[in-house]
């Protein structure tokens, strides 16, 4: 049974915020000159009262316009990932289903996928639909940490704050021959799962009350490890998929990855021997979109004609400090 990624639609909140916004707050930071934290020209921030459910609803508007509301409301499976859940005790799947008018048989909130959550969502949707669990699935991702965590008064002074941007996306997957998911590779590297931490001064657990604002606990040593892992893992899962579908990486029509920084983007396309014009890059306009990076870039590629019917697109990413990576290949059939 063939399962296809039929379409994707996206949402970027608010007006673009320029690099000068963070420059006015910047203070001395030991990591200021690190390649991980060289700021993009622009990024978007979620509004103070805007929820992850709001973002997903706005992202789904393009699918509803092109396919009708019933295509969304009648989906059998809803798979979600939210960088910052609106409530800490549960994911947003139930509220998103209600907002979109859905009564799905399956609602799954994925947390471990991180920046590769869209790829993981494709794997889960493909497995469920091909096993007879339904005919259609939605994959909804929301990145909303930039305007909430990284724009806190104390955090926005740090080098790490100027890189993230916010955005959301919804993908439509169905039992269909239109845009077949050719193959998916997902790998978990559990030995690295504890390497991403929240830093608070004075130290406390993230849920405990107290002074100090939480941010990502980066150090030079951790950054060196993350760079090495990301440089290795994304090409590894990409080559695995390409090998199984019988396409050399250099012959891919398009590469779509997550976009942590310019260094990773350059290293990944060089590892796959692809020219820049065949690797979608919205970093300068959107910053690091985390899990929303792949679907936002895919949507841009389709809208601008960089991905045409019959093209093979490879989506690849790694997550957190390198505890997860995934790649998926799709033969794009066009927006039908």
UniProtKB/TrEMBL annotation:
MF terms in GO: 3-oxoacyl-[acyl-carrier-protein] synthase activity
KW Phosphoprotein (keyword) present: no
A Pfam family it matches: ACP_syn_III
GO biological process, one term: fatty acid biosynthetic process
Alphabetic keyword roster: Acyltransferase, Transferase
Protein name according to UniProt: 3-oxoacyl-ACP synthase
Highest classification ranks of the organism: Bacteria, Bacillati, Actinomycetota, Actinomycetes, Mycobacteriales
């Amino acid at each position: 049974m063939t399962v296809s990624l039929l379409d994707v639609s996206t949402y970027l909140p608010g007006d673009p915020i320029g690099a000068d916004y963070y420059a006015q707050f910047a203070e001395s930071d030991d990591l200021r000159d690190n390649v991980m934290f060289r700021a993009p020209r622009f990024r978007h921030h979620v509004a103070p009262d805007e929820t992850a459910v709001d973002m997903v609803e706005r992202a789904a508007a393009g699918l509803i316009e092109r396919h009708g509301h019933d295509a969304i409301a009648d989906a059998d499976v809803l798979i979600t990932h939210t960088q910052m859940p609106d409530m800490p005790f549960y994911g947003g799947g139930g509220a998103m289903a209600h907002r979109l008018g859905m009564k799905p048989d399956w609602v799954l909130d994925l947390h471990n996928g991180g920046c590769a959550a869209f790829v993981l969502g494709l794997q889960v949707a493909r497995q469920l639909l091909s096993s007879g669990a339904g005919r259609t699935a939605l994959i909804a991702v929301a990145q909303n940490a930039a305007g909430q965590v990284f724009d806190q008064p104390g955090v926005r002074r740090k080098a790490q704050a100027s890189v993230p941007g916010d955005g959301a996306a919804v993908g439509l997957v169905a039992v269909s021959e239109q845009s077949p998911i050719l193959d998916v590779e997902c790998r978990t590297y559990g030995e690295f799962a504890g390497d991403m931490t929240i830093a608070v001064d004075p130290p406390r657990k993230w849920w405990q009350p107290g002074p100090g604002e939480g941010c990502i606990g980066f150090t030079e040593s951790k950054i060196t490890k993350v760079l090495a892992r990301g440089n290795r893992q994304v090409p590894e899962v990409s080559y695995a998929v390409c090998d199984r579908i019988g396409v050399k990486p250099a012959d891919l029509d398009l590469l779509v990855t997550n976009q942590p920084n310019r260094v990773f983007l350059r290293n990944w396309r060089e590892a796959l021997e692809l020219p820049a014009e065949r690797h979608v890059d919205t970093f300068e306009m959107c910053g690091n979109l985390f899990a929303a990076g792949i679907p936002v870039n895919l949507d841009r590629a389709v809208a601008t004609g960089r991905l045409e019917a019959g093209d093979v697109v490879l989506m690849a990413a790694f997550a957190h400090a390198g505890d997860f990576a995934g790649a998926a290949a799709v033969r794009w059939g066009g927006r039908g």
